[in-house]
Automatic annotation (TrEMBL):
Taxonomy, superkingdom: Bacteria
Gene Ontology terms describing biological process: ribosomal small subunit biogenesis
Coiled coil location: none
Top enzyme category: hydrolase
Entry binding sites for GTP: T159, K160, A161, D162, G209, H210, S211, G212, V213, G214, K215, S216, T217
Name the record gives this protein: Small ribosomal subunit biogenesis GTPase RsgA
A family per Pfam: RsgA_GTPase
Organism: Jiangella anatolica
Recorded GO CC terms: cytoplasm
Subunit structure: Monomer. Associates with 30S ribosomal subunit, binds 16S rRNA.
Domain CP-type G: 110-267
Domain EngC GTPase: 119-265
Family, similarity comment: Belongs to the TRAFAC class YlqF/YawG GTPase family. RsgA subfamily.
Length: 339
């Protein structure tokens, strides 16, 4: 105090803006970092988050105050610090906005640890070749379960239609009313990519599919300059593959995002609750109030209301059979795309 009065007009404590916490006015009414810049996370690599805002790319790390909360591709975040995106700069993620959807998986069916793969996706495009490699319907079913469970709309993309007829595969998914597109993307004769682009426009779409089905070929056709590596003969198992390879979001030229998931080698479904899955099938769910408590609605579940509805002709037999097939896929072992 003595110094202040003696020094009369000037005290450096009055004018210096200290960096960090102390400089920021806060009150209980004002959320922390209300001035944080909104951004979208498009890639994650070893604790560094690639974010986009106003069309520029900014690298960020998570602020300590976020704690152990995971930040994933698709997250809408608030950034503070240097958000210029200039080389060598690093912004801080101080906030993660509430997610509209969360696509999860467990590493395997008996693995209780859930991992969030992508946040805020509104569509899951399941890519399957009609031949080379042979389709794996069980894996399609499992991916559908993950999508329905997450409240994300599924889209089936059948590639390599030049090699085999997709009709049988399409027919087996028709009762589930899953939209489907068929492509033939062999060099020189791209067919169907325009239709895929229509389905993807202005939406955030996650791509899944096992190795060699033509995901990268498709992404390259959809996103000019994406430069995804194609044509690798992949004999690498999940263990052998670099585990930090994670999802990456690529901007589509007509709006929207396609999110490639090269690191995902399996689709464990331990987290899926059958009681929640049926909500994706409102016509079937309407018949379940008659079910006994805790009914799994599976084939042979005692006194399941769905059987009564089937007998009374109120539900489509093919649709119910398809639903129960999905339900059963959850209980089968080995969710490896490459199994
Ligand atoms: N005949 C035919 N071949 C295709 C088609 N689409 C892609 N291919 C070929 O299939 C092979 C695998 O395609 P990729 O795009 O690398 O497949 P991917 O799903 O990205 O595979 P990974 O990179 O291993 O995950 C490549 O040799 C492609 O040229 C198609 O529609 N018809
Ligand atoms: Zn039931």
């Amino acid at each position: 105090m003595a110094r202040r009065t003696a020094a009369s007009s000037y005290d450096e404590r009055d004018v210096r803006v200290r960096p960090g916490r102390g400089s920021r006015p806060r009150s209980k009414l004002r959320p922390a970092h209300a001035d944080a810049t909104p951004a979208l996370v498009i890639a994650v690599d070893r604790g560094r988050y690639t974010c986009v805002l106003d069309g520029r790319t900014v690298t960020a790390m998570t602020a300590r105050e976020l704690g152990r909360k995971a930040v994933v591709v698709g997250d809408r975040v608030g950034l503070v610090g240097d958000v210029s995106g200039a080389p060598g700069t690093l912004a801080r993620i101080v906030r993660v906005e509430e997610r509209t959807t969360v696509l999860r998986r467990t590493a395997d069916d008996d693995d209780p640890v859930e991992r969030v793969i992508v946040a805020n996706a509104d569509q899951l495009m399941i890519v399957t070749a009609v031949a080379d490699p042979e389709p794996r319907p069980r894996l399609i079913d499992r991916a559908l379960v993950a999508a329905f469970d997450a409240g994300i709309e599924p889209l089936l993309c059948l590639t390599k239609a030049d090699l085999a007829d997709p009709a049988a595969l399409l027919a087996s998914y028709a009762p589930l009313q899953v939209p489907a597109v068929v492509t033939r993307l062999a060099p020189g004769s791209p067919i169907g990519v325009g239709e895929v682009a229509e389905h993807l426009r202005d939406r955030a779409t996650v791509l899944v599919g096992h190795s060699g089905v033509g995901k990268s070929t498709l992404v390259n056709a959809l996103v000019p300059g994406a430069d995804r590596a194609t044509g690798q003969v992949n004999v690498v198992t999940g263990r052998g593959r670099h585990t930090s390879t994670s999802a990456v979001a690529l901007a589509l030229p007509d709006g929207g995002w396609v999110i490639d998931t090269p690191g995902i080698r399996s689709f464990g479904l331990a987290h899926v609750d059958p009681g929640r899955l049926i909500l994706a099938f409102p016509d079937l769910a309407a018949e379940t109030p008659a079910c006994p408590r805790g009914c799994t609605h599976a084939d042979g579940a005692p006194e399941c209301g769905l059987d009564a509805a089937l007998a009374a002709g109120r539900v489509d037999p093919a649709r119910l059979a398809s639903y129960r097939r999905l339900l059963a896929s959850r209980d089968l072992q080995a969710g490896d795309w490459d199994a």
